[in-house]
Amino acid sequence: MAGMSKAVKVGIFLVGGIVLFCVGLFLVGSRANLFGNRYTVYADFNNIETIDQGAKVRVAGMDAGEITDIQIPSSPSAKFRLKLEVEKKFQPIVRQDSVATLETEGMVGNVYVNIKKGSANSPVCKPGCILPSQGTVSMGQLMKEGSALAGSIQSTIRDLHHRADGVMQNLDSATGHADQMIKGVQPNVVHLTSNANAIVAGIRQGHGTVGSLLTDKTMAANVNQTIANAKQTSANAKEASGKVNTMMAEVEKKDLPKVHQTVTNADSATQKINKAVGKLVSPGKNKKSTADEIRETLDQADRTTANLASDTEAVKHNFFLRGFFNRRGFYSFDTMTPSKYAASDFVKKPRARVWVPAEGVFTTGPNKSQQLTNAGKLILDHAMEGLTPYLPNNPVVVEGYSTSGPSNEQYLASRERAILVSEYLQQHFHLNPKWVGVMPFSAHPPKGARKETWDGVALVLVVSKKQ
Amino acid sequence: MRYWIAAFFRSVGEVGLFGLRVIRDTFRRPFELKEIIRQIFEIGWRTCPLILVSGFALGAVLALQTRASMQAFGAESMIPQAVSYGLFKDIGPLIAALLVAGRAGAGIGAELAGMRVTEQIDALDALAIDSFKYLVVTRVVACVIAMPILTTLLDFAGLLGGMASDLLALHMSVRLFLNDAFGTMGWVDYIPPIAKTVVFGFIIGTLSCYLGYTATQGAAGVGRASKRSVVFSSLLVILADAVLVKSILFWYSG
User: Whose CA is closest to A13, among B70, B248, B146, B179?
Assistant: First the structure.
């Protein structure tokens, strides 16, 4: 440094300063890119949204140039023409169908022109071509469209609501029919089966009895009565089947073949009974074969009624009718499996769910049996406060939980607890046993209950939608 | 009172004429090239360390101070932009001009005043050397040439300072910093602010030379000339800056 002459130092100063200035020029210029190879395209806009000369032009979001000129339209119907200088390297992707839009950086940023990429089969936009443009949507316009949309959604929903109402009404009447049918059939079936059972029992006692039976007028009258009953049953069943038919047509054809089968069975059964009785009453016939036939017939009638019962059960579980039966209190707690239960309203949307911890409520007696303490009864009474507004005639389930011991003991204890509590509640609150269920869950409540483990019981109540 | 007003207008007029004479003489032969180089060395090169160090510190401080307010908006990525905008658009030129006024302006005022009161200038005139051309024009030209270069140096030193501060605090890459710093900067933000320092250089050189060249009353006059050089150049630079910024905004429509 010391050996350097002043002239050299001044030279360094000048050259260094100028070079630095030029570096700055290039750094700044890399954006403005006056040195880059550019070409001109145009875009017309109705509203230029405060955009100014020198504003950025982006191609598919990448900085590509700037607006160099804004031509003001000569008449109100004409549009503003923006002159866009775009870097040459973007030319391959700027096609004649590339749409130019005015966009804003962020919420309050600068306005810039965005050119979308064109489609591959559209010709390349040559310098000087005019790109199609798309005006920005103003906030007011957006709101107007939004409100129109909301209106149409509302009317759609109203329409849907209306339709759903109609469907529900249909369903309701269908289930009403089904109910009526079941109610109508039930006493007859019971009567028939008991009669048939009595007859079969009598016949099973031996030939002598059958012999005396044949001469006994009252017995014959009884048989006649039985046949009349069977006929009545069959007529009822037929009528019911007709109702079921119409109902099923309305809902689905799921259980129709089964019901048909049942009715056919019942029909043929009655025919056989008819025939048998005809043989029975007509003189000079083989006694044994007649008796056998009666037995056979009655067996068949028995089976038929069993079929009918299982069909009724099937109807109960029919997807469409299940809800109805459930609402009617046909919560068959006997056949309720834990998985079914976990999917039911008891877990999904109970009206009330009260968790009662085991501590103080249960004591473990001899043989590890659970016992309900007096203090526990008070705790349960207190816990029921949440449920009493919906009592009676809303289904209540007592879920049992226990976390002590291996899983089999957990299950046993949880079941015992649930049974103890449900018995106590039935007795203390005079609950209809039909409305009270028991669900032992060992240690882990079902997923929807939002608890990992529990020790004690949970009282769950759902509200029937229609009573 | 009237005396003061008259004195004020007389000095303004004298400075104006002095400035015009400088401009006129700059383009008249003979060009005192050797002396100009010597003055650039004095004013430019010798001021470099001061400019670089203060520029670096200024940039670092700017970055640190903006960080606090940027953090409040979660806009830390704006720090490079804030530093570069602040430095390049106004703080850089102004600080560079004030530093040059303080260091070179005082030097020129004191040197010329000293020569005046010791009658060296009269001696030069007696030797038929154009003392105005030899002493004043060379210094003003050196100021005008050195000023933009010093400003550029200060700008970049400041950017370096801001970058250092940001790199340490945010672990930002150099490339990203530079991209952010220059990303939204246009020519308008870069060239006019540096170009306007030519005016600052002319103001500093002319005022300091005038005050030194016209000094009277011996040693006290030297001190006064030195002091006034700094005060008046700084003041006028700031006032000129306001006018220049406004006219830049006007001409380039910001």
Answer: B146
